[in-house]
C-alpha cells in the first residue's frame, strides 16, 4: 500500500506534465517536455505511473498526433498539422525529432512503463468509435452486427464491452499499448482526410511526375521543405519502421528474434506469445489502412460460417476510393512484411509457400480472453504460409488496389492512384527487395551494424530477379498477376487523357515485370491454361502439377472481388465477368491482348495530338511496350511505330471488332481534335446525352466542311464573263442584286474561315456546350424569359 503523500505527489506531477504537454509548441519546449516525461517515469513505480497514464497520456497522444489544446481528442476535430509530428517535420529540426523518437521508440522508458502498467492491468481506455475504420463503425451501430464483430475479427476479440453508463451500448476497451497503437494507425487516415478537405477549393494541382511518387505524398512531405528535408525528421516513418522491426518478426515467428530486446517485456502468461502481439499490430494496420471503407471487409466464407451478412453496399452508398496519402506508409508496411516471404523462399520454404492448404495460426487478444474470442480463433484467423505474413495482407491489399483502380473518379488527380500503383509494383516483385531498401531507416533508428543485419535479411533476388524458387509466391498471389492486371488496363484506358506519358509508363512497368523472366511468363500462361481447361471440362490436363491450385484461385477470385457490379466501375472491361473468369489471355474482344492493342493505338494518337519535344522518346516507349506485349502474348500483335511527329491515318485491320465506334464515315480515333478533348470520357460536369449528340454533330460538320483533311493547294477556276451588258432597273432587280452581293460576301467569308481553320488544324468543337453550367445558364435564361413574358401578359390583362 503506497503512502498517501506519494499518491498525491504522483497525481499532482502528472497534472503538471499534462499542462506542460498541451502548452509545448516550439522545438525547445518539446525537447524539455520529453525529458520531463522520462524523468517522471524513471522516478516512479508502476503503481504511481498509473496517474501519468490516466491524466497525462491522453493529452500526450492529442498533442503528438493532432495538436489539440485539450485532452478531449475524441470529441474535438483533429488537426494533424498542429501536432508534434508535423511540427517537427515542418521545422526540419533533428534535435526535436530525436527527442520525440527517443520518447516513443520501442526501447524507450515510456514503453517499458507501458509494459509494466499493462502487465498489472492498471489502466483501461475507451477508444472513440468515430475514429474506428468505417466498416467497423457501421457494425457497431447495430447490436446484431456488434456482437458478431467480436467473433469475426481478431482485432476486436475480447475488447468489446458494455457501456457501464448505457448498458445497451458497446464500447472498445483497450490497454495502454493497444490504445496508443490504434491512435498511431489512425493518424495517416486523419491526416489524409484533413488535407483533402483543405484542398477542395484547389481545382488544378501541379503536374504530377512519375519520379515524384514517393516525395510528394500528403501527410509525409511538405512543399516548403524542398529537397533538403531530412529523413530523420519524418517521425512517423521512423516510428513505423521501429515498431514493425520490434513487434513484427519476419523470420520464424516462434523463434527468438535478434532485435526483440526492445519489445515490451510482457510475461508469457499475459500475451501468450510474441506471435499474438505481432498479429495484433499487423491486424491494426491492415484494418485502419487497407480495409477501412471497404464494403466487403471480411472473407465471404468467414461471414457465411457465422451466418452473418453485412449490408454495407446499401448503407455506404457510393463507393469511395481508399483514402489518399497512404502510399508511403503502406509501401513500407507491405515491403517489410514481404521480407518474410524472402526468408521463407531462401530457407527452402518453396513447398510450404506454394501449398494451397496452409495451416491456421491462432489469433487472439493480449488479455487472452475466452468465450466468444476462443470460438473465433479457428475461423477468423487467416490462412498463412508457415513463417510468412503474406496471406495476412493478400485479400485486403488486393481490394485496396482494386478499389483504387475501379472507383477513382474521372477528373480527379492521378496522384492517389499512382501511389497505390507503386505499392502494387512493390508487391509484384518481392525478389527485388533487399536490405539496402531499409538501410537508411535502420541506420537512423539505432545506427546498428549493417553487416550483421545484411546476413539476417539476405535477399536472394537482389541480382537474379525472378527464379523458380518464387513459384509458390506467384501461385498463391496469382490474381495480382492476372485479374488485377486486367482491371489496371481498364484504369489505364479510363485515365489515358489525364496524363498520357505517365499512364504509358505505368502500363510499360507492369508489362516489364510480367515479361522479366521466361519462367514467369510460362508460369502465368500455364496457370491460365489449366484454369480454363478445368473450367471447360476438356479432359485431363498436361499440367497436373498446377491443377491443385485451380480451386484455390477460383475461390480467391470470387472472394477478393466480392460485391462488385457493373454500375459501380465506369471504365472497367470486366462488367460481365467480375469474379467468375480470368480474361488476361482471352481471345475475345475483352481479352488482355486486344485491350492492350487498343490502348497502344489510343496512346499513340494522344501523344501525337499533344506533340511536344518528348514525342520521339514517348513513341520509343510505346515501341518498347509493344515488344513486351508481343513477348507476353506471342507474335507481333501491334505494328511498329515510325517516329514521325505528323498525324497518321490508321489502316483498316481485319479484326474490326477491336476498332472504336464510328462517327460518320470516320472512326472516333481518327477524328483529330486539338488536345483530343472531344474523345475523352464523359465527366461529372457534363450532360452525358447532350455531349454525345454534340460530338456526333461536330464530327458531321467537320466532315462536311472538309476539316478532317489537310489543306491542299487551291485549283483556281476561271469564269467567262458575258459581253452583253444589261442595266439593272426596278426595285425587284435591285433587291435581288443586293441579296446576291450579301450572299456572295458571306460565302466568301465562310470559305476564308474554313481555309484558315484547315491551315491551323482547327476543328469544330461544340462539346463545351454540354457543360452542366452552360446548360443551367441557358435553362435559367429560358425560364426567366418565359416568366417575364407571362408577367407581361398578366399585367396587360
Automatic annotation (TrEMBL):
Matching Pfam families: mit_SMPDase (PF14724)
One MF term in the entry's GO annotations: sphingomyelin phosphodiesterase D activity
Keywords: Membrane, Transmembrane, Transmembrane helix
Annotated transmembrane regions: 735-754, 774-794
Name of the featured protein: Sphingomyelin phosphodiesterase 4
Organism: Lithocarpus litseifolius
Amino acid at each position: 500500500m503506497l503512502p498517501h503523500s506519494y499518491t498525491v505527489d504522483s497525481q499532482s506531477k502528472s497534472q503538471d506534465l499534462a499542462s506542460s504537454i498541451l502548452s509545448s509548441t516550439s522545438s525547445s519546449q518539446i525537447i524539455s517536455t520529453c525529458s520531463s516525461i522520462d524523468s517522471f517515469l524513471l522516478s516512479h513505480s508502476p503503481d504511481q505511473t498509473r496517474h501519468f497514464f490516466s491524466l497525462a497520456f491522453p493529452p500526450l497522444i492529442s498533442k503528438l498526433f493532432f495538436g489539440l489544446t485539450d485532452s478531449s481528442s475524441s470529441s474535438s476535430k483533429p488537426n494533424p498539422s498542429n501536432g508534434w509530428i508535423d511540427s517537427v517535420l515542418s521545422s526540419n529540426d533533428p534535435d526535436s525529432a530525436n527527442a520525440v523518437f527517443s520518447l516513443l521508440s520501442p526501447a524507450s522508458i515510456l514503453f517499458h512503463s507501458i509494459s509494466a502498467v499493462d502487465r498489472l492491468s492498471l489502466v483501461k481506455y475507451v477508444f472513440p468509435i468515430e475514429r474506428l475504420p468505417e466498416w467497423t463503425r457501421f457494425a457497431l451501430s447495430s447490436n446484431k452486427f456488434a456482437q458478431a464483430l467480436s467473433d469475426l475479427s481478431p482485432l476486436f476479440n475480447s475488447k468489446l464491452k458494455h457501456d457501464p453508463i448505457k448498458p445497451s451500448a458497446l464500447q472498445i476497451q483497450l490497454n495502454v499499448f493497444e490504445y496508443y497503437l490504434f491512435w498511431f494507425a489512425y493518424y495517416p487516415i486523419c491526416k489524409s482526410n484533413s488535407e483533402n478537405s483543405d484542398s477542395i477549393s484547389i481545382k488544378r494541382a501541379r503536374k504530377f511526375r512519375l519520379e515524384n511518387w514517393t516525395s510528394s505524398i500528403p501527410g509525409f512531405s511538405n512543399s516548403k521543405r524542398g529537397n533538403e528535408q531530412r529523413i530523420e525528421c519524418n517521425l512517423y516513418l521512423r516510428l513505423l519502421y521501429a515498431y514493425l522491426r520490434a513487434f513484427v518478426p519476419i523470420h520464424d515467428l516462434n523463434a527468438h528474434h535478434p532485435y526483440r530486446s526492445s519489445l515490451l517485456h510482457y510475461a508469457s502468461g499475459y500475451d501468450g506469445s510474441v506471435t499474438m502481439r505481432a498479429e495484433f499490430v499487423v491486424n491494426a494496420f491492415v484494418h485502419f489502412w487497407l480495409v477501412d471503407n471497404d464494403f466487403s471487409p471480411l472473407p465471404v466464407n468467414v461471414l457465411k460460417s457465422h451466418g452473418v451478412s453485412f449490408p454495407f453496399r446499401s448503407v455506404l452508398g457510393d463507393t469511395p476510393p481508399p483514402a489518399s496519402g497512404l502510399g508511403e506508409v503502406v509501401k513500407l508496411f507491405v515491403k517489410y512484411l514481404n521480407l518474410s516471404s524472402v526468408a521463407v523462399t531462401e530457407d527452402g520454404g518453396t513447398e510450404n509457400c506454394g501449398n494451397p492448404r496452409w495451416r491456421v495460426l491462432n489469433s487472439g487478444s493480449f488479455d487472452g480472453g475466452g468465450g466468444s474470442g476462443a470460438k473465433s480463433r479457428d475461423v477468423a484467423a487467416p490462412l498463412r504460409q508457415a513463417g510468412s505474413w503474406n496471406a495476412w495482407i493478400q485479400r485486403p491489399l488486393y481490394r485496396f488496389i482494386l478499389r483504387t483502380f475501379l472507383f477513382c473518379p474521372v477528373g480527379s488527380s492521378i496522384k492517389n492512384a499512382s501511389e497505390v500503383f507503386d505499392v502494387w509494383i512493390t508487391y509484384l516483385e518481392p525478389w527485388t527487395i533487399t536490405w539496402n531498401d531499409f538501410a537508411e531507416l535502420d541506420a537512423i533508428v539505432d545506427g546498428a551494424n549493417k553487416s550483421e543485419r545484411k546476413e539476417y535479411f539476405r535477399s536472394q533476388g537482389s541480382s537474379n530477379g525472378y527464379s523458380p524458387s518464387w513459384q509458390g509466391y506467384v501461385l498463391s498471389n496469382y490474381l495480382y498477376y492476372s485479374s488485377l492486371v486486367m482491371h489496371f488496363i481498364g484504369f489505364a484506358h479510363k485515365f489515358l487523357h489525364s496524363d498520357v506519358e505517365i499512364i504509358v509508363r505505368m502500363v510499360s512497368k507492369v508489362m516489364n515485370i510480367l515479361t522479366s523472366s521466361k519462367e514467369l511468363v510460362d508460369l502465368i500462361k500455364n496457370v491460365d491454361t489449366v484454369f480454363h481447361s478445368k473450367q471447360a471440362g476438356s479432359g485431363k490436363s498436361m499440367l497436373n502439377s498446377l491443377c491443385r491450385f485451380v480451386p484455390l484461385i477460383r475461390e480467391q477470385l470470387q472472394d477478393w472481388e466480392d460485391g462488385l457490379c457493373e454500375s459501380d466501375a465506369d471504365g472497367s472491361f470486366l462488367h460481365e465477368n467480375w469474379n467468375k473468369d480470368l480474361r488476361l489471355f482471352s481471345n475475345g474482344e475483352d481479352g488482355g491482348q486486344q485491350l492492350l492493342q487498343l490502348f497502344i493505338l489510343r496512346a499513340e494518337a494522344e501523344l501525337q495530338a499533344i506533340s511536344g519535344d518528348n514525342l520521339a522518346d514517348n513513341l520509343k516507349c510505346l515501341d518498347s511496350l509493344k515488344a513486351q506485349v508481343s513477348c507476353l502474348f506471342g507474335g507481333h500483335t501491334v505494328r511498329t511505330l515510325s517516329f514521325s511527329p505528323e498525324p497518321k491515318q490508321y489502316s483498316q485491320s481485319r479484326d474490326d471488332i477491336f476498332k472504336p465506334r464510328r462517327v460518320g464515315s470516320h472512326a472516333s480515333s481518327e477524328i483529330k481534335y486539338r488536345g483530343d478533348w472531344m474523345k475523352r470520357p464523359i465527366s461529372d460536369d457534363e450532360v452525358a446525352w447532350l455531349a454525345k449528340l454534340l460530338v456526333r454533330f461536330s464530327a458531321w460538320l467537320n466532315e462536311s466542311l472538309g476539316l478532317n483533311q489537310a489543306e491542299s493547294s487551291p485549283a483556281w477556276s476561271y469564269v467567262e464573263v458575258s459581253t452583253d451588258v444589261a442595266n439593272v432597273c426596278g426595285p425587284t432587280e435591285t433587291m435581288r442584286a443586293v441579296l446576291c452581293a450579301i450572299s456572295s460576301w458571306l460565302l466568301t467569308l465562310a470559305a476564308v474561315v474554313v481555309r484558315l481553320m484547315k491551315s491551323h488544324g482547327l476543328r469544330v468543337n461544340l462539346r463545351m456546350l454540354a457543360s452542366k453550367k452552360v446548360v443551367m445558364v441557358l435553362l435559367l435564361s429560358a425560364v426567366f424569359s418565359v416568366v417575364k413574358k407571362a408577367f407581361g401578359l398578366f399585367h396587360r390583362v
